[in-house]
């Protein structure tokens, strides 16, 4: 297992798509903060602090994570089915469950890194330009730790979903296309179905897609916090097991 993890981490470190996505996200975050700072200063308005940027960044960061992972899954995981690498790995003597587990863990690590870039850049640049700031009714350290932990959990949950798609379709284009369409429209589909079927509306409140929009809230009750933490863990385990099951029975050409 250690050798599999080292191999996957090496491939991730050398993967140009991974680094390109990080650079793009970092550039977008930096540009937004700098341009906002210049605009506010020219208008003589009160500057936005680092923590203010952070509290407003989670919604946009969710979309960044989903889009980036959709692309990464297609060009990092699914592409190995097309170029013959996966067939070589599958015939290496390692069990397929271990192979899939190693790939899932590494793309989960990539998801955590990607999920950190946007908010960290916004917080750091905002702090350098306008100060760190403070939050009403909650410790800044507590908020940072809680929001970071939840962000990592949801990034891993999304990673397990795109890893599942890459295993099902085994094609870069299909994986990217299906993943993007799924993440872009799943909220609308669930909302529409929920208006006709109350049970769907109830279930939607326990899916990672809707809950991921709540991780940046300042004050979260303990029962809600438990739900926010438990749902992505269950989602990660569920899609991880489904992906491993499909991969173990898949004919790899």
Label this structure with key terms.
single chain, 253 residues, 11 helices
Strand percentage lies at: under 5%
Which outline best applies?
globular
Oligomer: single chain
What pattern of helices and strands is seen along the backbone?
Answer: HHHHHHHHHHH
> How many separate structural domains?
1
Question: Distance N terminus to C terminus?
Answer: 23 Å
Summarize model confidence as the mean pLDDT: 92
Largest sheet: none
Radius of gyration: 20 Å
Number of strands: 0
Question: Uncertain regions: pLDDT < 50 for 5+ in a row?
Answer: none
Number of contiguous helices: 11
Provide an overview of this structure.
With 253 residues, this protein is mostly helical. The protein has one domain (2-249). Helix content is 82%, strand content 0%. The protein is built from eleven helices and no strands. Helix 2 runs parallel beside helix 6, helix 4 packs parallel to helix 7 and helix 7 packs across helix 8. It is globular. 38% of the residues are buried. The mean pLDDT is 92.
